[in-house]
Write a structure and sequence with these properties.
- The chain starts with a strand and ends in a 5-residue tail after the last helix.
- It has 534 residues and is of the alpha/beta class.
- Among the domains are: 185 residues, no CATH class; 133 residues, GMP Synthetase, Chain A, domain 3, CATH 3.30.300.
- Helix 10 packs parallel to helix 12, helix 13 crosses helix 14 and helix 14 packs across helix 15.
- It is built from 17 helices and 21 strands.
- The relative contact order is 0.11.
- The protein is globular, with a radius of gyration of 23 Å.
- The strands form four sheets. The chain has an eleven-stranded mixed β-sheet with strand order 7-4-8-9-10-11-12-16-15-14-13, with helices on both faces.
Length: 534
């Protein structure tokens, strides 16, 4: 594997370019200027207007931009080990590309990654990656995703563009004057074959310039704390008296941050941070967490959704008025799409951006300028518009229930639960769903839901019936199984307060970029949660 050495937080300090959700501040933040000059927000406005116009212009050229990106990828990729093995030098069209490049998941890609980890060059992309983004896989253990000097700008600029488009559309630039936080993993990196390796959020942290440290919270030292609850207490200590204007992170961990702030102060977030106006979120569907987060804040704030991953920053919310996220069509990634219903077929349909249609659930395939080729990242999405190309993320390919042929997906269970919760006026903290298969002669099987309520419904059985009815209306296969007496209606088991947090803590996945799976086709997660049922 090559030499692995640890890079301490103090030894590997901030790098040159900026990245992450704070990336947009580059050129906008200036230290030692009188605060009453509001110079940061003043100088942000013309840059925001420029990025906004550029983004609008690219909306109309997305298919052409994708074709140009594919040509560029092929030109570089043909000179690599992977490119020679797949004869990329002969590929001229997308049809030829599909014939040359098979679909792969991480396990199938791993032999190439292992060669890079052994110190070899020009394997998937020219030279070596400048980073490995380390991420946990559900079946592959730890994954090492390459980031090249060409692809790092995708992570940097897309985050910047999301915030600048928001600024240009709404006119709200005042938040650039205050303190901002991204609840992330540790920036501590190790080296594998000389390549700095760590969580994407930690990598990004090394690209924030020194002069921006006065705007960024928490401190660099606090970000290096591995244990999430210890880190969170320190974050609260460092931010509770600050002028926080933008807060970003994965929704359940932002909620945990808000809970600690309110417990320590006895105040709502709006009273602690009167100038807080922008909440940036990503990683999971926002809807199950939205009501409780906004209740904790105590006022309406603007929200910006992003769709980043170790493999690339794929989309971002470019408008407060339009549904969905704008696909990042001109940032070094060539996208392909496969109808999710065909993803496990030997020869699934495979289309480029120009041929996608609205309303179809697609599996996302990426080819990027870090050397990923025909790479199935495991996410599913649906286009809500093709002019421009806007998407909603619908779930994970491996996060579904089809123990009886129903193929229920994440989008459907989240919709069914949140619709019932809104009608009943209850808040959901967290949940997960799994099949419960009865033994021979024991009765009908069912979907078992583990739900942590902020406050429980007055009638749990009536609430479960509503959720079941919503799911039947959303998924015709599930409805057929219920009406055909093959399945009985779903059952809900309440989870004790903080039960999900306690479980995630027990398996070492509390905080950072870790997420609770909202549904699974097996019971491994559900069986552990039974210990935390109330």
């Amino acid at each position: 594997m090559g030499l692995i050495s640890k890079l301490s937080c103090k030894k590997l300090g901030p790098g040159k370019p900026q990245a992450g959700v704070l990336a947009f501040i580059v050129g906008l933040s200036f230290n030692r200027l009188p605060e009453n000059m509001k110079i940061k927000s003043f100088l942000a406005k013309p840059f925001a207007s420029y990025i906004y116009r550029s983004t609008r212009k690219e909306m109309s050229s997305a298919p052409e931009d994708q074709e140009n990106i594919l040509k560029s990828l092929l030109k570089t990729g043909s000179k690599t080990v992977f490119g020679r093995e797949h004869h990329l030098e002969t590929v001229k069209t997308y049809e030829e590309f599909k014939a040359a490049i098979p679909l792969r998941d991480y396990e199938q890609f791993k032999p190439y990654i292992d060669q890079i980890k052994q110190g070899k060059h020009n394997i998937l992309w020219k030279g070596q990656p400048i980073y490995f983004a380390k991420t946990s896989g559900t079946t592959s253990g730890i994954k090492y995703i390459p980031i090249s000097k060409e692809s790092i700008s995708n992570h940097i600029n897309t985050a910047r563009n999301a915030l600048l488009c928001y600024m240009a559309e709404t006119g709200n630039s005042a938040f650039a004057n205050g303190k901002m936080i991204f609840l992330s993993g540790s920036p501590e990196l190790e080296r594998i074959a000389g390549i700095p390796t760590g969580r994407l959020s930690g990598i990004v942290n090394h690209h924030i310039p020194h002069y921006l440290r006065t705007n960024q919270l928490p401190s660099y030292e606090t970000n290096c704390i591995e244990e999430w609850e210890t880190k969170l207490d320190k974050i609260v200590e460092e931010t509770i008296s600050q002028d926080m204007t933008l807060i970003s992170g994965i929704p359940p961990w932002m909620q945990m941050y808000f809970d600690r702030l309110m417990a320590g102060s006895g105040k709502q977030i709006k009273d602690l941070f009167p100038n807080f106006s922008v909440l940036v979120h990503g990683g999971v569907n926002f809807e199950p967490y939205k009501d409780r987060l906004l209740d904790s804040i105590g006022k309406q704030v603007d929200t910006i959704e992003t769709y980043p991953a170790s493999e690339g920053f794929f989309a971002f919310q470019d408008s407060q008025q339009e549904e969905g996220l704008l696909l990042n069509s001109n940032s070094g990634i060539f996208f392909e799409f496969i109808p999710a219903s065909e993803i496990f077929q030997e020869r699934p349909s495979r289309v480029s951006l120009k041929d996608v249609k609205t309303g179809i659930n697609y599996a996302l395939i990426v080819n990027n300028n870090a050397g990923l080729w025909g790479y199935n990242i495991g996410d599913t999405l649906r286009f809500v518009s093709t002019s421009p190309y806007r998407i909603v993320v619908t779930g994970r390919i491996k996060h579904y229930i089809s123990a009886f042929g129903e193929h229920v997906i994440g989008e459907e269970v989240e919709y069914s639960l949140m619709k019932a919760a809104k009608e009943e006026g209850v808040q959901i903290n967290e949940f997960t769903v799994a099949p419960f298969i009865m033994g021979q002669g024991e009765g009908k099987s069912f979907h078992e839901w583990f739900v942590e309520f902020e406050q429980r419904p007055a009638d749990m059985h009536a609430f479960a019936r509503k959720v079941d009815s919503n799911l039947r209306a959303k998924n015709i296969y599930y409805d057929d199984l219920i009406s055909g007496n093959i399945l009985q209606p779903l059952q809900i088991h309440p989870v004790k307060k903080n039960g999900f947090i306690d479980y995630m803590k027990s398996i070492g996945k509390l905080g950072g970029q870790n997420k609770v799976p909202h549904l699974s086709n097996d019971r491994s997660f559900a069986e552990e949660l039974e210990k935390y049922s109330d």
